[in-house]
Write a structure and sequence with these properties.
GO molecular function, one term: racemase and epimerase activity, acting on carbohydrates and derivatives
Number of strands: 4
Pfam family, one: rhaM
Organism: Geodermatophilus africanus
Protein name: L-rhamnose mutarotase
Order of helices and strands: EHHEEHHEH
Structural class: alpha+beta
Strand content: 15-25%
CATH topology: Alpha-Beta Plaits
Length: 120
């Protein structure tokens, strides 16, 4: 399943409360994310408010639309909007994958012939 990486900017004056809110996300919101196809979703927060999210999903746009359709999502987004520099938390900037260790190792192993005298 493909992974997506994105960034958002949390207001530096709200970092402590942002961390606290995410230590206990509402169970209905957790289920809405799961049911919408968000897998292995993690958020990383830097001290200056840079938030980096990583999620595994087949289609980010479809997964976002599905979670947006959940009633709990509107309540969660309204609660979280003041934490973001954009004022709404919708300004995700996706990042392009430029290096994948496992993929490159697998490709290198496919291209490297076995030494003479060893089974291939």
């Amino acid at each position: 399943m493909p992974r997506v990486c994105f960034t958002l900017q949390v207001r530096p004056d709200r970092l402590t409360e942002y961390r606290e809110r995410h230590a206990a996300v509402w169970p209905d919101m957790l289920r809405a994310l799961r049911d919408a196809g968000w897998r292995d979703y993690q958020l990383f927060l830097r001290d200056d408010g840079l938030l980096v999210g990583i999620v595994a999903t087949d289609d980010l746009a479809a997964a976002q639309a599905a979670v947006d359709a959940a009633e709990v999502s509107a309540r969660w987004e309204a609660e979280m909007a003041p934490f973001f520099a954009t004022g709404d938390g919708r300004g995700k900037s996706t990042l392009d994958l430029v290096f994948d260790l496992d993929a490159q190792l697998a490709a290198a192993e496919e291209q490297t012939p076995a030494p003479i005298g060893e089974p291939s």
